[in-house]
Every structure is written in structure tokens, then in C-alpha cells.
Amino acid sequence: MPGTTIQAISLYKLLVPLKEPFIISLGPLTAVENIVVVIRTADGHVGYGESSPFLTINGESVDTGFIVGQYFAPALQGRDALDLPGCLAELDRIIYGNSSIKSAFDIALHDVAAQHAGLPLYEFLGGKNDKVLTTDMTVSLGSPAKMQADAVRFQQEGFPAIKVKLGGTLEDDVARIRAIRAGIGPTHPLRIDANQGWQTADRAIAVLQALGEFNIEHCEEPILRQHFMELSRVRAASPIPIMADESCGDEHDAARLIQLQACQMLNIKLGKSSGFHRAQKIARLGEAAGMTLQVGGFLESRLGMTAAAHLALSSPAIHHCDFDTPLMFTDDPVVGGFQYQPGGVIEMPTGPGLGATIDEDWLRRAEQVHF
């Protein structure tokens, strides 16, 4: 279709400091270093996508993504934006991996396609705005006293669930959770994420068993992702359900984990899966296996997180949302997008497409390249 021919593509670096360091077992994060992709078609549609590269998880940085994106842009110019399978296959043909920057192009292409169809992106993906999305709020690693204070503040702010970063020694992590439970009480929903920090199955089992008394909903990625063959043993010995995160990048990872009965849950992120195209394949596999799914992200702005929220509405198996990182930004460059409401509720845009863009003043000031 000539009207939906890709006419121009722009890449921008989106750099925003965080309010305070966000600390996980893989190290501290102090600033957002993302890439925004803007795709324009001959008939005037404009699609936006965002990637949040993560050196220690997807092996990408804002600089590598900015360069690889410049391989993609000229290859997509002149193609039909509605040929999603063909455009996305071209990205895979050009370079292996690089799931983060691929996700930004995938999101922008889906934004264009949904606008062209006159549908909100969640409806274009086959979903409905028929469930209330709520986000948890994350407590980063620190002293028990600091983590307790943060958890109490998040509870008072009305977040329906609190996620806690762990991954230290057994004694330290038990002290952290004990302090948090003393602050928020025994029943407020509590989730934990080790980000591979316990490394081995034996160590993870010991910590999980020690945490069994604290009424924890689930634990994300307790061991090194290279040791995924050991996850089924961790699952069998753990009193806390296991959710795969770093070990579940695409649909092939998901299929392996399901076959191994390695975990009860999967955490889907667009930046791990290369975007909606593969993320939906993971969701369908998890749904068929009767699993509970979560959608999360890295350090995306409300633009990238709005894309994640559209994904969350596309599958009935997705019950948990981890969409809190934009609340950690010192500034919000997004126009439109989902809105945070009291109680951690996410209010979705209902117009055609993604429903989120980046403020033009931000884009003018950003490092950028155009094709």
C-alpha cells in the first residue's frame, strides 16, 4: 500500500536522571539512557517506540542501540509499514540479538499499524480494555531500615503490591524482609526479585526456605540465568513460587522453561523479546500451560511502559504488572500515554495506536539522527 510506505525514521537518545539511585543485585542505576524511534509513513501516520537497553541483561547500551538502529532505518525505508512480519524479519536478518533496539522499532511499527486500523493498540493485538491494570512499586536494595521506610511509604501511597529487590546473603536478605514485614504488616502483598543474585540452586533454596514464613507471592529469577536447567529443582524445594525473568527472553526460552517445569510464572518484557511480535508468542505459550504471567520493563518512560500496558491487556493470563520505573524519573518527557491513578491503577489511552508520544522540546534537545 503506497500510503503506508515508510518515508522517514528518526532515532533520539532519551536521557533523564533518576530521583535517587535504583539498586539491584546487578548494580546501581542512576539515570535513564533510552532510545526513542519515530517512524513516519507517506500518508502521515507517525509511530513511536522506545527501548531501554540494559548492559547486564540484554547486553546493549544506549550507544550500541543508537548505532544498530542506523543499520535498521535505511533497510526499512520504502517498505510497507503494515508488513509487520516482513519488516521485523528484516531486522533479524541484519543482526542477531539486539532485542532492545529491535523492540523500539517493533513498537513504532505496531503503533503505525494500529493507527491505520483505527484501533487502540491493545485491541489491534487482540485484547480488550476489560481488566483493571495495577502496578506494584519496587523497593531497591539497601539497609533493612531504608528498605522498610521505602516499603511503608509505598504502602501509604496506596500501591497494592510491593516488590523488593534482593540477592545478597541469606542473613542480609532475611533481615531486609523481616524489617519490611514489620513495617507493612503480615498481609500486604509482597514480591521479591533476586535478579540472579543468589547464583546457585543450593544457595537460592536456602534463602527461599528461610523466607518462606513471610507470606511472599513469588520470587523472580533466583539463580544465574545460565543455570536454567537447575530452576526446576529450585521450584520443587521453594515454598515461594518461582517466576522466570532474565532466563526468559523470547518464545524459545519460554518453551524450554515450560518443558522443564522450571517455574510457575513468566515475566515478559518487550525489551527482552524484541517487541510485541515475540512477546505475544510467549504469552500464548504461558496461557496454554496454565501459567500466571507478568509484564514488566527496564527503565522505560511512560511511552515504553504504555506499550507494555497494551501488551498486558492482550492476554487473560497476564495478571501482574511492574510499571513503576517512570515514577522514579526526575522529569516526564511523555505526552499522552497511560496515567497513574490512586491505588497504583493504570488508566489507559483509548484512541488509535499506542497513544503516547515524546514532547517535541525534548526531541529537539536530544542527540538524534534522521533517515
Sum up the structure in keywords.
Enolase-like, domain 1; 8-stranded parallel beta sheet; 4-stranded antiparallel beta sheet; TIM Barrel; 17 strands; 371 residues; 2 domains; alpha/beta
Protein described:
The protein is α/β, with parallel strands linked by helices. The protein has 2 domains: 2-118 and 359-370, Enolase-like, N-terminal domain (Enolase-like, domain 1, 2-Layer Sandwich), CATH 3.30.390.10; 124-357, Enolase-like C-terminal domain (TIM Barrel). The chain has helices at residues 62-76, 84-94, 99-117, 121-124, 144-156, 170-184, 201-210, 231-237, 251-260, 270-273, 276-288, 302-312, 360-365, and strands at 6-24, 27-41, 46-51, 133-134, 137-139, 162-165, 190-193, 219-220, 242-244, 265-268, 292-295, 318-321, 334-336, 339-341, 345-347, 356-358, 368-370. The longest helix is centred in the first third of the chain and has 19 residues, at 99-117. It is globular, with a radius of gyration of 20 Å. The model has no long low-confidence stretch (mean pLDDT 97).
